[in-house]
Structures are given as C-alpha cells and as structure tokens.
Amino acid sequence: MQIWEFSGEEYEDVTRQIYTPMIARTAPDFRGWSAVQELGDALTLSRSQFRGPISAVRTDRMAARASVDDLMLFSVRQLAGRGHVRQHDRVAELAAGSGILIEGRSRYERVSSAEVLSVNLRFPRELLPLPTAEITDCCARSIDPAAPAMQMVYGYLDRLFEMADDLTALQRLDAGRAAVDLLVMALRDVTPSVPGGTGSEEVLLDMMRTHVREHLADPQLRVEELARRHHVSVRHMYSLFAQIGTTPGAYLREQRLLAARLMLSDPRYARLAMPGIAAAVGFLDITTFGRAFRRQYGTTPTGWRREHLGSGPLP
After folding, report:
1. Selection from 65-69, 239-243, 291-295 with the highest mean pLDDT
2. Where is the HTH araC/xylS-type domain (predicted)?
3. Where are the beta strands (DSSP E) in 157-267?
4. Which of 19, 55, 208, 305 has the fewest beta carbons under 10 Å from its own?
5. Distance CA 313, CA 310 (A)
C-alpha cells in the first residue's frame, strides 16, 4: 500500500499518479491524503480524503492524449456535501453512498465545496465488457446507493482494500477484475431513462438513441429528421433528451465524433482518407468535421490519427 499526503499545490501531481491528469484549483488551506492498493497494470483501488473546496477539470487536450486502451474511474462517495461531476453535457450530484463512473478519454470536471471521503477504482477501459456507446451513456450518472447491486460493489471494494496486502499479485489482479465485473451489474441500474416518464416514453427515447448509433453515416439524419422518423414533434423530442441531461443535436454530434475517433485509432482504417472518415460518420463537409472534432477533443483528426497510429508510412 502506498500513502500520499498532499497540499493543493501538490494535488495535480497526485492525479497523474493515481487517477487521471487534471488541472485543479484549491483553497489555500486545502489538504488531502490517498492510500493506494496496486491490483495490476493500471488497475488500482484507493481511499482518498480531501478537506477544503476543490475544482478540477480534465481538459479536451488532456483527454485527446489518452491512449486507445485509456482509463476509467469509478468513485463511491462516503460523505455527504455539495459537489458534482460533469461529463458529456450531464451533471451528476455527489450524494453520500452514490457511485459515479467517469471516462478518461473525454473532458470532465469535478467540483466539491466540502470534505470528501471516497473509494476509487481505476481500471483500463478494455476490462469493461460493454459497447463504447453504452459506456459513454453510463458516465456522469449517479448510481442509487440503495440499489442492491451498488451495495454489493461498495461492500466488495471496501473489503478488498482491507485485504489486498495479504493477497498475492495474481490474486490482487483477479480480485480487481472481479470488481469490474460487479460494476457491470451495478451499471445496469443507470441505463438512461426519463425521470417520471411513462414506459412508452422510455422505449421511444431508447429507440431514438439506438437509431442514431445505427445510422451515423446517414448525412440526412438531423434533429428534425430524427423526430419525423419516430413520429414525434421536435419539441417533444427535446423534452425527452433534456430529462437525461442532453439535447438531440448534442447526442447526435457526440456519437458521430466518438465513431470518428475510434476509426482514426483503428489500423484497419489507416488507408481511409479524412473525407472518407468524415463521410462514414455523417459529415459531408470536411471543414465542419475538422472544426467539430477539434472543439470536442482539442486536436485535429489528423493529429489524433498521427498520435494513435504513429507518424510513419501507412501499411
């Protein structure tokens, strides 16, 4: 077990070591500590306590430098207090006992104005056996602390932290992967739904989200067209997406850019020119595609491909 004690000035160095790199602002009297159990390659379990207000952000540029098998962070807050996490245009309140999943490959911010005590599981994204879009949908959504699956996850993480020193390296790795498997069960409780909505509204929203993911290459798919295809008004569609923390346009753009980023990181598409990548995810104008990609990830599509596929000659 490693134990870190730090001031506000040292917090950014700690995030690089045990979480994901962030830029932070803290009060002059900010203090914190973290105890870390190494479970395997990039797989860690930690307990952390912060005293004093803190505002931390992982910028688009930081997220753009994440590797293909980048990191996820699942955090369980143990103390009540004002605070929130924002990612993918969603805001999750930091309630006592609730769990929140964050992905390192996208911008996020965390704000807290009180003492924080949390248990944190960091793991490679590849260990989470869920589709990319589903993982993204689960991020920045609070898991109800009263849910049985959430209680199982927290109980397991708490016990594993206490016992990790007595396990062999292989046992720690197996235990860490088992924690991720338990997390998958808990994430089923945060499948986006319409609060207070009817079952038919939930089905309709799910149908629209699925339609978007399956028709990204269709350049005619816009907000108005999505509403027409599902026989609802644009106003009603906006009200449904608003209740899960986003808009139809933002969701469509996010899914297209996610798909483009995956293609740019995949050697199978290394010969596909940039206009082909843009067209494959529904952008007819290469300039619009480049501008949207840079705004989202802090780098150009070409820069992303060069960083993730190398700058040498194409195969």
Report:
1. 291-295
2. 206-307
3. none
4. 55
5. 8
DSSP character for 77?
Answer: E
Which helix (H) or strand (E) is 290 found in, with range? helix 286-297
**Domains of the chain by start residue, with CATH:** 2-190 (2.60.120.10), 199-309 (1.10.10.60)
Which one, of 23, 113, 22, 25, lies nearest residue 73 by Cα?
A: 22
Using a 10 angstrom Cβ sphere, with 0-12 exposed, 13-18 middle and 19 or more buried, the burial of residue 29 is exposed
Q: Is the dihedral of CA 286, 106, 211, 241 positive or negative?
A: negative
pLDDT in tens, 156-194: 999 999 999 999 999 999 999 999 988 988 887 675 544
Residues 272 and 231: beta-carbon distance below 8 Å: no
Q: If DSSP codes are grouped into helix, strand and coil, which group holds residue 44?
A: strand
Angle at the Cα of 193 (from 190 to 198), degrees rounded to 5?
A: 145
- Torsion on CA atoms 262, 268, 271, 275, rounded to nearest 10: -30
Question: pLDDT digits over 72-105, tens only?
Answer: 999 988 765 677 888 887 888 777 888 899 998 8
- Structure token digits, residue 116: 């924080």
Q: What is the largest distance, in Å, between two alpha-carbon atoms of the chain?
A: 60
* Nearest partner of 223 among 184, 190, 251, 181, judged by Cα: 251
- What separation in angstroms does the CA of 123 have from each of 4, 70, 158, 214, 288? 19, 9, 16, 28, 34
3-class secondary-structure state, position 133: helix
Burial 123-150 (b: 16+ CB within 10 A, else e): bbbebbeeebbebbbbbbbbbbeebebb
- Burial label for 55, CB within 10 Å (0-12, 13-18, 19+), is middle
Q: Please give the structure tokens belonging to residue 169.
A: 């390296």
